[in-house]
Structure formats: C-alpha cells, structure tokens
Design brief:
The strands form 2 sheets. This protein has a 7-stranded mixed sheet, with helices on one face. It has a 5-stranded mixed sheet with strand order 8-9-10-11-12, with no helix packed on it. Helix 6 runs antiparallel to helix 8. A hairpin with an 8-residue loop joins strand 9 and strand 10. By secondary structure, it is α/β, with parallel strands linked by helices.
C-alpha cells in the first residue's frame, strides 16, 4: 500500500508540471482496490461493504447508519450495491467517517455526502486535507486535489464520542500516516454476546523522505512514536483495518463462509503487525542519523 502511494505521488508531481485539473485521482492503482467484494456481516450490526482491499464499514442502527471510509471515487456504486444486497438503504446513511484523509479512503465521500445528506466527521488533524480534497496533504501539498473536497460537519478530537441511535463510537487519535489518522472503538452485540471492536488505523510510513525533512508535518516522528506506543495497549475482542490486506481478511474469511465474528479475533496478528511497523519506524529513524 505504501509503495503504491509513493509511486502515484511521483507520477502526480510529474503530471502537474504540465497541466492542472480540479481533481486528479490516480489512474495507476492496484486492481484489488477496485475489485468487487461480497458484502458480509462481521459481528452484530457491523458489516463489510467495501471493495476487495479498500475497507468500508457499515454500522446500522434504528436511527440510520454510519459509514466508515468510502474507497476511491468509483467505489460509490460498489458500496451502494453492497448496502442494498445486505437489505439496508443507502439513503439511510446519517454519519460519514474516515480513518485517514487519503484518496483511497475519501474518494467517494463527497458524492455520498451529497446524495444522502449525511454529516461528515473527521479528526481535527485531517480537516484541511478533507476540505481541500487532499491538496494540503503534507506529502502532496500545493498540488491539485486528489478527490472532491468534503464539507466537514463536526471536528473530532481524541476520545470524542460519535453517537447515533443505540451506538456510540469513540475516536482514537493515531497520527503519523496522516496528521489526523484515527481508529474507532465501539461495542456491537448479537444473540450470543457483546464484542468490543477496533477499526485500527495501522501506522504505516508513507513518506520516502527523511521524517525530519517533511516540513508540512514537523511532528511526524513524534506522532508515530505516540501511536506506536499507544496502539499495543488497546484492549478489544475483534479488530479490522482500513485495508483488507492489513488484517488478512481473505485468509480469515472466504466468500460464502457462515457468520463467524471469531475470525477477526486474532490478537497475535495485530501485535505482530504493530511490532513490524515499529521496527520499520526505528529503522527509518536510524537511517536519519548523521
């Protein structure tokens, strides 16, 4: 995922030397970001409605629904189709959230907001990036927008609660990948039990520059350190991430499998991935030493 973003950013910089467009979503993207994925029930009233690799989550309530992440601009129809296939109404989406303000999670956000009237809520660190369609992103700042700008209806801060119907989600500020990267933790229940679910924003390093050289994000190294220290301490029953590949969705579940929340209860996988990400971060710091 990181190498894909870096390749695209290089291409985007070259493209903008010759012309500019209001929105320039990348054309060289992994096929699994667009490939359809059969929607399914994860646990309780939590459902997967995204593409094969770009995770979008639907949380249903009697008062309407919450959608977390929208994938690419072309993902809008996939998400709409998936929601309908599960027996829910697209227009009942009331709240829109994102785990990071990059084009691969925000591409369809403005269109879905316009068509549903849903309120978009975002971590304070990603407000500017969301409102400019990625134009003020620290890695591509000053370039053309990467997706349609999104109207922010509520600014979120660490441990703020998002409420709708009988659901309460707590936003956890996990900066580094973007200034406003965040995770969400909440409870769902089925006929057997309650589950504490973490939608984890895994802190992959996006920049190919020295962290200290990223002038648009001077606290990047400090933020990564905070996130990598905080995330291993979170207690949960089930976990998922912004990309299906980050939580091995297609190894844990195949299309047609029966309802099985326990498939997403692998704490060992979570801890191992965070340990690998911390090792990559420490290596990055070491390479920056004179």
């Amino acid at each position: 995922m990181v190498s894909t973003l870096l390749l695209w950013m290089t291409a985007l910089c070259a493209a903008t030397n010759s012309f500019a467009q209001p929105v320039l979503e990348p054309t060289r993207i992994p096929p699994e970001w667009i490939k359809p994925q059969q929607p399914f029930r994860i646990a309780g009233n939590l459902y997967y409605v995204g593409t094969y690799d770009l995770s979008s989550y639907l949380i249903t309530t009697p008062a309407g629904h919450i959608l977390v992440n929208t994938g690419l601009a072309v993902s809008e129809q996939t998400i709409k189709k998936n929601i309908k296939a599960l027996g829910f109404r697209f227009k009942d989406i009331k709240i829109l959230l994102t785990m990071q303000a990059h084009f691969d999670h925000m591409g369809a956000m403005a269109a879905i907001q316009q068509k549903t009237g849903a309120r978009f809520m975002v971590d304070a660190g990603d407000v500017s990036v969301s409102e400019t369609g990625g134009k003020t992103d620290y890695e591509t700042g000053g370039l053309v927008s990467q997706y349609s700008p999104v109207k922010v209806n509520r600014i979120l801060h660490d441990k703020d609660t998002i409420s709708l119907g009988d659901m309460q989600l707590v936003m956890l500020h996990h900066p580094g990948h973007t200034i406003g990267s965040c995770s969400f933790i909440f409870e769902v229940k089925d006929d057997n039990r309650r589950y504490k679910v973490l939608l984890a924003n895994m802190p992959t390093i996006i920049t190919n520059r020295k962290l200290s050289a990223v002038k648009g994000y001077p606290d990047m190294a400090k933020d990564y350190a905070y996130t990598l220290d905080t995330m291993p301490k979170i207690q949960f029953d089930l976990w998922l991430a912004a990309h299906a590949s980050q939580f091995s969705l297609h190894q844990k579940r195949k299309d047609g499998d029966a309802y099985n929340p326990a498939a997403f209860a692998d704490r060992t996988d979570y801890d191992k991935q965070l340990a690998n990400l911390k090792a990559a971060y420490l290596k990055k710091l070491a390479e920056e030493q004179p």
